[in-house]
Amino acid sequence: MRTEETVRRVFADLERRYGASFRRNPGTALARVTAETEDPFRVLISTILSQRTRDEKTEEASARLFAKYRTPKAIANAPLADLVSRIRPVGFYRRKAAKLREVSRILLRDFGGKVPHAYDDLVSLPQVGPKTANCVLVYGFGKPAIPVDVHVAVISRRLGLAPEGASEEEVEEHLVRVVPRDLWLELNERFVRFGKEVCRTSFPRCEVCTFTSFCRWFRRNRGRPPSGPLRADRASRRRR
After folding, report:
1. Helix or strand (DSSP H, E) at 123
2. CATH code given to domain 3-25+146-218
3. Which SS3 state, helix, strand or coil, does residue 231 take?
């Protein structure tokens, strides 16, 4: 199957799988922030909070932070100890609290208190790499980009949309080449939901997946009767 044909098939299947509920109930914390506020600043801050943190913790920390500090000026002038206390549910909360103040001060100094909508300006900010910048473009500004997190990377490698062993940055480069631009805005949201519900990183639910005919992971790990060998394979992975 050609790569573009694979992409179209995957997107069509995810549309059938989730349908209208996909839009009513977004799968990521960032999509829910967007639905509630449409504020690029909140998307930027929530994305920084989400780094190496589960969605539920990101949402909890974001709600606690924005209950008191809602603007770059407010966060820039906030006591560091209070920021630390409010975002404590997330990982690396002390470091992130300091970075939130630094980012907010740079936005005030260099960008008139506004979040920039150019990729190069975004990645110039502290704690903002390619994934975070692309998340802000997609969820904050509705601009086509491809944020690549662990779900997007794993699914792309398994389905042959990127080479096996490719880093997240390399996966993004391949997806930019093979995914039609009109699909970029929805790619992260669709893949993340699919990754949480079906194509899990540790134990994919291949029995409910319709992509097994061209999935590399399935051919290598699950393309055999679900008997002794499969149980042994799972046991060996738990021992690693």
Report:
1. helix 119-123
2. 1.10.1670.10
3. helix
Between CA 141 and CA 134 the distance in angstroms is 10
Q: Where in the chain is the domain with CATH 1.10.340.30?
A: 38-141
CATH H superfamily, domain 38-141: Hypothetical protein; domain 2 (1.10.340.30)
Provide the residue count of the chain: 240
pTM of the predicted model as reported, rounded to 2 decimal places: 0.85
pLDDT above 70 covers a percentage of the chain that reads 87
What pLDDT is attached to residue 2?
74
Per-residue pLDDT averaged across 62-75, rounded?
96
Question: Rounded to an integer, what distance in angstroms lies between the CA atom of residue 29 and that of residue 60?
Answer: 10
Q: Name the token pair of 30.
A: 């960032």
Residue 113 confidence (pLDDT): 97
Contacts of 240 (CB under 8 A, 6+ apart): none
Q: How far apart are CA 108 and CA 124, in angstroms?
A: 14
Per residue in 197-235, pLDDT tens? 999 998 999 999 999 999 999 999 875 544 333 333 343
Main-chain phi, psi angles of 25, to 5 degrees: -125, 80
Report the candidate in 11, 20, 50, 35 with the shortest Cα–Cα distance to residue 191.
11
Q: Which of 88, 81, 82 is nearest to 62 (CA)?
A: 88
